[in-house]
Amino acid sequence: MHLRRIRRPTRPARRLLIALCVAALGLAYGVETSLAGSEAPGLSKQLSDALAVAGLDPANLSALVVDLNTGSTVFASNSTLPLVPASIEKLPIALAALAVLGPDFRSRTLVLGSGMRRGAVWDGDVYLKGYGDPALPKRDVRRLARVLHSRGIVQVTGAIIADESYFDSVRTAPGWKPSFFKVYSPPISALVVNRARKQKSVVDDPALAAATAFRNALRKRGVTVDGGVGTGTAPANTIRLARDSSPRLTRLVGWMNTRSDNFIAEMLLKTLGARVAGMGTTSAGVAVVQSVLAARGIPLAGVSIVDGSGLSQWNRLTATTTVAILRAARSDPGLSEPFIGSLALAGSSGTLARRFVDSPGRGRIRAKTGTTALSSALAGFVDDRYAFAIFMNGSHDSPVNHWLARAAQDRFATALIGAPLAGLP
To answer: What is the per-residue pLDDT for 28?
Structure first.
């Protein structure tokens, strides 16, 4: 049989063939790479090398960088892969809360009277009703007692009753380990004073503890309370006797993201459910968050939002969804400043205070961190040039090495500091 000689490809053809083979290998391993303008290929290698972590399966790693000026993808690796986000979960909560409630929103705590006033005596019960303030301090409870006393009331014939009915009575969120209760978050309730702390411990029933604190504050003001303390729902015909307001939502979101505060995240999630759906439940809040994301065109394929804090093992986010959230917040004139300002500043504040300290990224990266046994993550902005997200997952048998993962994330974000603007030499 006659064999025809195969001609050797020309040098340009060989280069094209090699490139196609590399691309095919990347797709085979679930890795996609997309680069904008003059940033290829040097930056691609820097970013890819930065993410190399000993012992971390590349199949459990996802990353995406988008140029904020052009909207083009700078780097992508498994960007649509759903992974456990840890506290990156707080980003969709922040966007939804700011969008639905508004940056100036404040939660209420009310003192309500059931009965009637007879001179200096309140003849009946007094209710302390919470509406989900996650930052209600003891000094505000004392102020409420002072207001009651300043109005001439020196005796309450009934009881002091805590009303936490604005939320349900579930103290944790789905998918939490039992050990998380009171360790990683105080018990969730519509009425919590001082983050449910009593001396050096955290109480099981924060609403009852709040009623007790209010009764004690009244007594110190010289107001006699004949009844005890309890929990219940205020009747419809109560009279408002005093009111307290939480800090502005902008400040709460700032604490939530900068410090990665789990409790604030869960309280805001239930507040969304209560305000929009009339149900102060985690699931109702999740439905609101999902509707906000969908309305803004944020892709939700593979996404599973289960709680607000990221403690749930059942949460799933993608790098694509996370970067879309960042871009949506940045492009909204009413949300951009409070959202971006809520993120930790590299080498300066919150969970990034000790990262990037001796790096060019110090003061130039704003991001949210995420850390659980199953996940290490970082997502945010580099200057006003890039939005990025990195997820690194382990397993129950092989947890993430957080030291190595954070080092890789820091290398990755720092590499973007020196990157040229897209399309420029």
So the answer is: 31
Q: Are 36 and 420 in contact (CB under 8 A)?
A: no
- The C-alpha atoms of residue 164 and residue 206 are separated, in whole angstroms, by 9
For 181: left if phi > 0, alpha if psi spans -120 to 50, otherwise beta; the answer is beta
Q: Which residue from 129, 131, 163 is spatially nearest to 233, judged by alpha carbons? A: 163
Given a cut of 60, whether residue 24 has pLDDT beyond it is no
For 192-195, the CB contacts below 8 A with 24+ separation are 192/130, 192/133, 192/134, 192/136, 192/267, 193/136, 193/137, 193/138, 193/141, 194/136, 194/137, 194/138, 195/134, 195/263
Is it the case that residue 4 has pLDDT exceeding 50? no
Give all strands (DSSP E) within 190-238, no chain letters: 197-198, 201-202, 224-225, 229-231
Q: pLDDT (tens digit, 9 = 90+) per residue, 335-365?
A: 999 999 999 999 999 999 999 999 999 999 9
- Give the residue from 50, 34, 19 showing the smallest Cα distance to 418: 50
Tokens of 49: 């090398």
Q: Looking at residue 206, what DSSP letter applies?
A: H
Cα→Cα distances 239→55, 97, 98, 149, 303, Å: 63, 30, 31, 16, 45
Q: Judging by beta carbons within 10 Å of its beta carbon (0-12, 13-18, 19+), is residue 425 exposed, middle or buried?
A: exposed
375 by DSSP, 3-state: which?
Answer: strand
φ/ψ (deg, to 5) at 252: -65, -45
DSSP state letter for 274: I
> What does DSSP assign to residue 227?
S
% of the chain beyond a pLDDT of 70: 89
